[in-house]
Every structure is written in C-alpha cells, then in structure tokens.
Design goal:
Blueprint: H1 8-26, H2 33-46, E1 54-58, H3 61-71, H4 81-90, H5 99-110, H6 121-127, E2 133-135, E3 139-143, E4 148-149, E5 165-166, E6 172-173, E7 175-176, E8 179-180, H7 183-187, H8 194-198, H9 203-213, H10 215-221, E9 225-232, E10 237-244, E11 248-254, E12 260-265, H11 272-280, E13 285-289
Parallel strand pairs: 1-3
Antiparallel strand pairs: 2-3, 4-5, 5-6, 7-8, 9-10, 10-11, 11-12, 12-13
Helix pairs in contact: 1-5, 2-6, 3-4, 5-6
C-alpha cells in the first residue's frame, strides 16, 4: 500500500474540493447527451468493456427503473413487477450525486497526480452533466438531472414551501429535513385533519404535521382538556397546561416574540407552575415547536 503525506498546501486544497463537489451535487444545469455518452464510454473503457449499442434517456429514477426492469425481461403486467422496479432503483448509479467519493478521486487526480485516479475521469465527467444512470453490458440508461433541488443547512432534502426535489417531467418529492412528507403537509397544512395526524404512524412526520397544522388548533380540535392557565411574570410568557388523548400532558408556552412551544410533562404535573419547575430541572423533552 502506498502512503502519501500531504503538504500543507495540499491539505488546504481539500476544503476547496469539498465545496466544489457539494456544488456539483446540487447543480441542476449542464445536461448534454453528447457529453454524457462521451464520458460513459470512458467509464466502460476504464473497465475494458465495450460500450453498449442501446442507449436510453429518462426523466427520473422511477421511469428509468421501470425501463430497466423491462430490459431485464420482467413483464410489466406481472404481480411482482414493482419489486423488480424497486431492485433496479436501488442498483442505479448516482451521477452528479456521487460527490461523496468522486471528490476524493478528483483530488487524487488533479492534485496528487495519482495514475490510478485517472481511471475515474469518466465518472467525474458524468457527474457534471448526468443524473442517475444504470450501465449494462447490452444497454445503458441515463437520466436527466433534477429540475430543482432544495436542502437545509445540513444538506438534507428540505423545502417548507414547495417540493424538495423536482424532475423535468413534473415528478416531485416533498421533504422536511429529509423526512418524506406529502404535498398536502407542505402546500396545504390547513386542510389536514386531526384524524390524519393521529393516524400517522411515523412520530417525526406526525410532529411536523402538528407544527404546520398549529398546536392551538390541534389542541382545540382534538378535544384536549385545559387543566391550568397563567401569565408567567418571570418569563413574560403565557402558559396553558393541557391533557391530550395522544400526547399526554403538554405545557403550551407563548413567548413575547409570538413563538409557541409545546412541551411534554409527566402525568403527575397538575399546574403550569409545577410544569415549569419540572422543566427547569432539565428533564424536559421538546416534542414540537412552531
């Protein structure tokens, strides 16, 4: 195994390559079918394989996975066709979203000049112009990049006012901090119902639903029992203690800024003052905040 010691200048460049590939992973421009084929041929050449004669282009991963399942000989009318589509979906290469490891080879090629890294130039080139793709010996299926990608500060799929991921054919994926949610939760949370919220098994998604629906409305429409109410002169906040059928006892606090917090407290708590005392001991669990 070859050991390489980086110079201070090379170490400083690593941050540059991180930023470079983070931008590539979110870049929705640069779709060029001729370039895609050019770089894909380089990939096949690097593994000593002839480039397939059949080339296909799709608009999104599901469309491509369905095509791949058909190319593998699976009947679209068979009961297990969707399971084969799922298998093909999981076997796709990620193109411009292979940034996590292509950044390493790009650095090794351009900065360290390692001959082994040069074999990855085809994959690196594809990342600039291609979405996900699936290579076979007899065929290759490429995809366009997404039309739009939105992420949070931790680079997770996230958009509170629209789709987090949108493809050119209109396919959309809705996410809050990488949690799959529905279009209704994002675009029309006011149309949610207490029944929908309580019927959602995923606790994190259910919390998001209540946040967007609004705790005051949820407490009212779910029939929560008001146990105590006061104005907290120390923190200049309004507090109300509720007993809910699905979330136990909750202390709802409205701050002077207008922000509202809903905090879980033990069943033994009977008043807002007791709830604050318990929370003040550092044992609280913030379930939701809006």
């Amino acid at each position: 195994m070859t050991t390489i010691t980086l110079t201070p200048e090379q170490e400083a460049l690593m941050e540059t390559y991180y930023d470079k590939w983070l931008k590539i992973s979110k870049n929705c421009d640069g779709y060029d079918e001729e370039k895609i084929i050019h770089y894909a041929k380089m990939v096949y050449e690097a593994i000593d394989k002839p480039f397939p004669k059949d080339v296909y282009f799709c608009d999104n991963p599901i469309e491509a996975a369905r095509l791949c399942a058909k190319l593998q000989g699976h009947d679209p009318n068979s009961p297990d066709f969707n399971s084969h589509v799922f298998e093909e979906l999981n076997s796709q290469l990620y193109g411009y979203q292979e940034a996590g490891w292509l950044a390493f080879y790009d650095f090794a090629d351009e900065v360290l000049k390692l001959p082994e890294a040069a074999k990855m130039r085809g994959m690196i080139g594809l990342a600039h112009c291609c979405g996900w793709w699936t290579p076979y010996e007899e065929a290759v299926v490429f995809q366009r990049k997404a039309k739009a990608i939105f992420t949070d500060e931790e680079n997770r799929l996230h958009n509170e006012s629209g789709p987090a991921l949108e493809y050119h054919d209109g396919t959309k994926i809705w996410c809050i901090h990488n949690l799959d949610v529905t279009e209704q939760i994002i675009m029309a949370p006011e149309t949610l119902t207490v029944q929908q919220i309580n019927g959602t098994n995923n606790v994190e998604v259910r919390t998001i639903m209540i946040q967007r629906f609004g705790w005051p409305r949820y407490l009212k429409e779910s029939g929560a029992e008001l146990l105590d109410y006061r104005h907290n002169d120390v923190e200049n906040s309004k507090e109300a203690l509720y007993n809910t059928s699905n979330y136990g006892k909750r202390l709802v606090v409205t701050c002077p800024t207008g922000r509202l917090f809903s905090l879980g407290v033990p069943d033994s708590v009977q008043t807002c003052e007791e709830a604050q005392e318990w929370l003040g001991r550092g044992k609280f669990n913030v379930i939701a905040r809006t």
